[in-house]
Write a structure and sequence with these properties.
Mean pLDDT of chain B: 97
Number of domains of chain B: 1
Structural class of chain B: alpha/beta
Low-confidence stretches of chain B: none
Distance between the termini of chain A: 34 Å
Number of strands of chain A: 14
Strand content of chain B: 5-15%
Oligomer: heterodimer
Number of helices of chain B: 9
Mean pLDDT of chain A: 97
Radius of gyration of chain B: 17 Å
CATH class of chain B: Alpha Beta
Largest sheet of chain A: 7 strands, mixed
Order of helices and strands of chain B: HHEHHEHEHHEHEH
């Protein structure tokens, strides 16, 4: 399977948006090569601004651009966007319900050797608690491209987080993407896995392994964390009777928490969660870290076995 | 409006500020009073182009109140300009009021942005100014900052951005009253040579007495005439200006007058 960094999908979508719309502005905070917004700088320099190493100012400037009628996309490393500029995102962008789009790059522990300072594991929690905010965690480069286009087509703030590493492209041009709607990846009857980001592919590998043991695993790509696709989650809980969530994020506050918050009130069923357990990351190769912190196919399979035992 | 009329209107605005914070039982009179003359000149001296009958008019200039806690002075000016009835001022900070404790865009007509978390306004103003230039529009943008607020690092990020983009459609105004919530700037965190700092970042710096209406009008006109770079008015002001017992006393940053104090304040303002 072809592997591509998700940020390539972000850059491709921005290129087509700049080609087709006059209102788009692309801002970066001195990491344009990493986020791929350098492609915009090179092809549409009049639509690109490098704000320097000043994330809070970048968010405020984007808010002003939105107030003037433009649609800004702003990107930097996810940890410095959702973390460092959180108050600006909260009080200036979300409170005003401004049309600012966020590209949180290099998210998750898979950013690897840079270590814990650069591994955003809290951003979904930080952004999904904000009123008016939409939060998307796509699973591959193609879905990131579609998510970016979907963000441009909607009104209001939208946060898209994606990783640094090349990950298998599991969707194609014809795979449907609907904002706020979980995408069925694999049919199954014993257990439902809601995964997003790189964990969608890992969940598929886990499901294939378990199929050999006679376990039938249903998988949804829950790319939109907010607004949550409650209808699909409820139906799945009723159908298979147990749930596993899988994400490259802290267990506390992430997509799994969002699913749990909904299910505990509406259809409590046994549930297990794959994620980082209240810890910072460290330097290492991405695949080493994903294994050590319980974020790969083996971790998903283990949680599936555990939840089935509780069913 | 003539200078003489602006001076008279500033008395009305100061009366509104002490009255509305008295009725609300909380709020920020000190910094509102220090900014009153600057705000009256901006809205009534034919500087800021707005239309109270069409608050969302696309061609209007924009005003960003970076020091959002002085909402009372902005609300008074907007009411006196005709954006909403003066009676609304007496609902400040009450449940269901259009006048939130800090400005909330959309709640009251005439507010161009919500604010209240300090240090953010100049970045927003920059974005507006850049957006207008990108769209070839001649709208201008004004942004009022507090001096204590300049302790926020983001302000200086924004100072660099405005200069980098040559935003001559932007005018920042610093209400330099030298007092913050906990004490004086000198006691808490001194700002250094403010004029020289802005100048060194490439701004057109205009220093003035922020309570002298002729100087204020002249400063706004000089800012409008400046091309190729942003302008900042560094306005020497007195916190609590116009009410003797409030002047230069940090305890009136976020304390409001009781009924007796209100009566004395109104008598002084309108003497």
């Amino acid at each position: 399977m072809n592997s591509v960094p998700m940020r390539d999908g972000y850059g491709q979508a921005l290129l087509s948006l700049c080609e087709n719309r006059d209102d788009i502005m692309v801002l970066d905070a001195d990491v344009a090569k990493s986020t791929r917004t350098v492609w915009i700088r090179d092809k549409y320099p009049e639509k690109f601004m490098d704000m320097g190493i000043a994330e809070q100012d970048m968010v405020g400037t984007a808010a002003g651009l939105a107030l003037s009628g433009m649609t800004p996309f702003i990107s930097t490393y996810c940890v410095f966007l959702a973390g460092r500029a959180w108050d600006q995102i909260r009080t200036t962008v979300c409170y005003n319900n401004l049309n600012v789009k966020f590209g949180g790059a290099h998210a998750g522990i898979s950013v690897g050797p840079d270590g814990a300072t650069h591994q955003a594991l809290e951003d979904v929690a930080l952004t999904r608690v904000l009123p008016n905010m939409t939060v998307i965690v796509p699973c591959d480069a193609e879905e990131t491209r579609k998510a970016t286009l979907a963000a441009a087509a909607m009104q209001g703030p939208c946060f898209i987080r994606f990783g640094r590493e090349a990950v298998p492209v599991v969707t194609d041009e014809n795979t449907p993407f609907e904002l706020g709607k979980a995408r069925l990846v694999r049919n199954g009857t014993d257990v439902t896995v809601f995964a997003n980001g790189a964990l969608v592919y890992e969940s598929c590998l886990a499901a294939e392994a378990l199929a050999k043991e006679g376990v039938s695993v249903q998988i949804y790509d829950l790319h939109t964390v907010k607004p949550l696709d409650e209808e699909t989650i409820l139906a799945a809980a009723k159908e298979t009777g147990c749930i596993v969530t899988a994400e490259e994020h802290q267990l506390a506050g992430g997509m799994g928490s969002a699913v749990a918050e909904y299910l505990v009130k509406n259809c409590p069923v046994p549930m297990e969660m794959v994620g980082v357990n209240d810890s910072f990351g460290e330097s290492g190769r991405p695949e080493e870290l994903m294994a050590k912190y319980g974020l790969n196919k083996d971790a998903v399979a283990e949680k599936i076995r555990r939840v089935l035992a509780r069913k | 409006m003539e200078i003489r009329e602006l001076i008279e209107l500033a008395k009305t605005v100061r009366s509104d500020i002490v009255t509305m914070t008295n009725k609300a039982g909380s709020g920020h009179p000190g910094g509102s009073l220090s900014a009153a003359d600057l705000m009256v000149a901006l809205y009534f001296g034919d500087i800021l182009k707005v239309d109270p009958k069409d608050p969302d008019w696309d061609g209007r200039d924009r005003f960003i109140l970076s020091k959002g806690h002085v909402a009372p002075v902005l609300y008074s000016v907007l009411a006196r300009k005709g954006f909403f009835p003066v009676e609304e001022l007496w609902t400040l900070r009450q449940l269901g009021s259009i006048l939130q404790g800090h400005p909330h865009m959309g709640s009251a007509p005439g507010l161009d942005c919500s604010s209240g978390s300090l240090g953010q306004g100049l970045s927003i103003a920059n974005g507006l100014a850049i957006g207008f230039k990108k769209q070839h529009k001649d709208n201008r943008v004004y942004c009022l900052l507090g001096d204590g607020e300049l302790q926020e690092g983001q302000c200086w990020e924004a100072v660099m951005t405005a200069s980098q983009h040559g935003l001559d459609n932007l005018c920042a105004i610093v209400d330099y009253n030298r007092i913050q919530l906990d004490g004086t700037l000198a006691e808490i965190k001194e700002l250094g040579d403010l004029a020289e700092e802005w100048r060194s970042f490439g701004w057109n710096v205009i220093c003035l007495n922020g309570h002298d209406m002729e100087q204020i009008m002249d400063a706004y006109h000089r800012a409008q005439a400046c091309k190729g770079r942003p302008s900042v008015l560094i306005a020497d002001t007195v916190k609590g200006k116009g009410v003797s017992f409030m002047e230069n006393d940090c305890s009136w940053h976020g304390t409001v007058p009781d009924d007796d104090q209100l009566a004395r304040a109104l008598a002084e303002i309108n003497a």
